[in-house]
C-alpha cells in the first residue's frame, strides 16, 4: 500500500472495519498489516481529521479508534503543538465527550476519550488548569463550556447536582484517568513536566469534591433506586478516584496541600460508611485495605473510630462470622484483609487499658478466624492473613513494652489464645486427602506450617516454657491414644521450638514427659508398627533438632537410634532419619561407642535397601565414623573400618563390571555412591577442631608420608581397601563430575592430618590428577584438590618436590596444547589451571622457576620444545588477559599480581625473580595497555587495574619503560564530522596516564578511576581522566 492516500479518512474507516471483521481474526498477517497502516495514519498530517471523523463513526470500534487516534497524535506531536492548537483540540475533545455520553456510548469509548483528554491536558503547551471542572460544566450544560465560564458556577452546589447518573459516571472515568496521569507526572523530571504537574494538581480539590458529592448519593436512599450494575460501577469509579487523588494529595508541598489532604481524609470517612451498604461493602473493604497498605496517613482518629464500629458490628462482622462458619466463599476474605489491615495499623495500640469495646470484639473476630473450616491456604485463606498480624505483635512486644506494663499480661493472654486456636490448623492431611492436592498446594501448606512456627518462636520469649508444655501435653495424650495426626502436629511444633530451648535445657522437663513415657518406650521397641509415615518423618526430624537434650539424656539414645534405623527403610523418612542419625552421632559419639556393633549390623541391613542412596548412606557412615573415631585405640578402630571398607571394594568391583557391560549410567550412580560413602567416612574420622594437627607447623625435615599404623602397620589393609576402591572407580572408568567431587573429597580428607587412614602417599594425588583428560567436567574441583595438596605440604615442600614438578608439568602441558591448538581451548580448564598456579607461586616459586628445561613429551613441531617449562604458564597467563571470559581474565590478573608481589628469601632469589619478570614485562605491559585502551570489557577493568598499579608501584624501574613504549605504540583514531581521521589520544594524554598512576602510589580506588577514565577516552567518550 502506498504511503499517501487520496482519501485517508475513508481509508481509516475501512481499515477499522477490516480490523474488527470476523473474517480477518484468524489472519494475523492481515491484522498486522492493518495495524501498521493505521498507526501510520494516526501519526500523519491528516490525523486530527481522521480522529474527528472516526469519533462520529458507525460503531463503537470506530469511535474507540477515533479517541485512540487523538491520543497517538498528541503524543507524537510534542514539539508541533502550540497553545492555540491545544485549545482548539481540547474544545473538539470536550464536545465529543459530551456528545458520546449523551448518546449512551459504551464505557470503553468513554474511557479512551477521557484518556485522550488527560493526555492533551498534560501537554506542556496546554494552558488550562481546572479541566475537571470544565468537563463537568460542559456535561451539565450539554455542550462545550470554556474554563472561564465554568468558574462562574459553584462546582459542588451548582455543577455536580446538575449531572445525571450517566454523566456522573463519565466524569468519574475522567477523574480517575486524570489522577493517574498526574501521579505519572510525579515520576518524571520536574524540569520537563513541572508546569504540567502544577496545573494537574489544581484538579485534586475538584476530584475530591466529586468523590464527596457522589458517595452520599450512592450510599443513601437515592442510591437504593439505582440498578445494581450501575451502583457498583459508580462505587468502583468513585473509590478509584479517591485513591488516585489521595495519592496526589499526599504531596503536602502542593498549594493548599494540608487543606486538600484534609478533604481526602474526610472522603475516607464516607468510604468507611459505605461498608454498611451491601452492594458496595466488599468494594469499600478492598479499597480501604489498599489505602491502609499504601497511604496510612489517609486515616485520622475519626476514621479509625468509624472503622472500628463498622468492623465490630455491621454486615462486615456478619460476613467474617459467616466465613468462620464455612458459609461463604474465599471472596469474603476481602473483609478479613480489612480487619488485618486495621489491626496492623494500630499494632500494640489496639491493646489499650482498658480495652475499647469495639476493639475487644474485633480481636475476638480475629481469634474466631482460626476456627474457619478446612486447611489453611488450601480451603482457608483467612488464617494465614490473621497469623501475620499476630506474628507482628509477638515480635514487637519485647522491643516496645516492659514486663510491668499493664498491657503485658493482656497481650500474653491473647498470644496464648492464638497458640490454642492455631493448633488444629497445623494438622497434616491424611494420605488420601494429600493425594488430591497438587504439588503447589502441598508446598503452600508446608510454608504455612513453617510460618506458624515462626510465630511460635516469636511468642516464646513472652509465653516461656508454658508454650512447650502445651505441645508436650498434646503430644503425650495423642501418643497414648494413637492419634497420630495430633501427635505429628505437636511434635512438629516442638521440633521448631528447639532453636529456643535445646541448648539451655529450659524445656527438659517437658521433653522428659514425652521421651520418658511408656508409650514412647513401646515406640522405641517397635511396639507401634502402625505409625504413619508423616508422623514418623516429623518424629525423626525432631530427634536431630534436640542434640543437646539427648547429649544430656544419653540413656534415651539406644531407643531413639533404633527408631532412626527403622525409619531409614522408608523413602519419605530416610532423608530426615539419616540427617538426625548424623547429628546425634556427632554430639553423642563418646557415649555411643558401646553401640557400634549394633550399628554395624543395622548398616548391613540398611545398605541393601533401595533407600540407601548417595543422599542417605553417606550421612549414616559419617555418623558411624564419628563414633569409631572415639574408640580408644587404632587397633579397635581398624576392625570396624576394615569391615565397612572391605564391602566397598566388592561394590567397586561390581560397578566396574557394570561399566564393562555398557551399563554406564548404573555404573556411574553406583560408583558415586561408593566414593561419597568413603569420603563421608574420612569426614567423620577427622579429629575434633581443638585436636586438629597444624600441618603448617610441621618441621621442614618431616616426611610427607611417614611410617604409621595406617600405612605400614595393622591399619594398612584398611587403607589399601580405599586405594583399591579408588583405582577400580577411576582408572579406565566412565567417571562423571559427581564421582570426581567425591574422589577429591576422599583425597582431601587426609590433607589436614599428618597420619591417619586417609593420609595417602603423595604420588596418589598426582596420579589421580594426571589421569583426567583436558576439559573434563569437574576440572575446577581437580585443580582445587591439587592446590589443597600442595598447600598441605607447604611447610616441607622439599619433600614433595617431585610431586610438585609432576603437577606443574601436567598443567603446563595442558596449557601448551591449548596455546598451540586453539580448538582445544577450554575455559574451565584455563581458569582452573591459572588459579592453580596463582595459589602455587607464593610457596613453590623456587620449584616452578627451577624448571629451565623444555617440557617433556611435546610434539616435534611444538613452539615450546626450546623454551623453559616455567615460561609456559606465564605465556598462558598473558594470553588469558586477552580472553573474553571474565573468570579466566580475573584468574590471570590474580596470577600476575601474585608474581609481581613475590619476594625472594635472599638477594639471589630476588634477583632471579626480577630476571624472570624482566623477560615478560614488555609483553605484559603491551597486553595490559592494549586492553585498557578500550579493548576489554568495562567489568574487566578492576582486575587489570590491580596488575597495572602493582607493576608501577612495586616494579617501577622494570615496568616504566615498557609501559611508555606500549603507550607510544597506540594508534587510536576516530572520524570527525568531515570524515577526517582524528587521533583519540595525544602524547600528553599518554604520558599523563602514567604520571597519574605514579601519583596514586598504588591506591586501588584512585588507580581504578584513572584507568577507567583512560578506557572511556580510548572508546571515544569525553572524559578528563587528568583529575
From TrEMBL:
<keyword id="KW-0813">Transport</keyword>
<dbReference type="GO" id="GO:0005737">
    <property type="term" value="C:cytoplasm"/>
</dbReference>
<dbReference type="InterPro" id="IPR011989">
    <property type="entry name" value="ARM-like"/>
</dbReference>
<dbReference type="GO" id="GO:0005634">
    <property type="term" value="C:nucleus"/>
</dbReference>
<keyword id="KW-0539">Nucleus</keyword>
<protein>
    <submittedName>
        <fullName>Putative importin 13</fullName>
    </submittedName>
</protein>
<dbReference type="Pfam" id="PF18806">
    <property type="entry name" value="Importin_rep_3"/>
</dbReference>
<comment type="similarity">
    <text>Belongs to the importin beta family.</text>
</comment>
<dbReference type="InterPro" id="IPR016024">
    <property type="entry name" value="ARM-type_fold"/>
</dbReference>
<dbReference type="InterPro" id="IPR051345">
    <property type="entry name" value="Importin_beta-like_NTR"/>
</dbReference>
<dbReference type="InterPro" id="IPR040520">
    <property type="entry name" value="Importin_rep_3"/>
</dbReference>
<dbReference type="GO" id="GO:0006606">
    <property type="term" value="P:protein import into nucleus"/>
</dbReference>
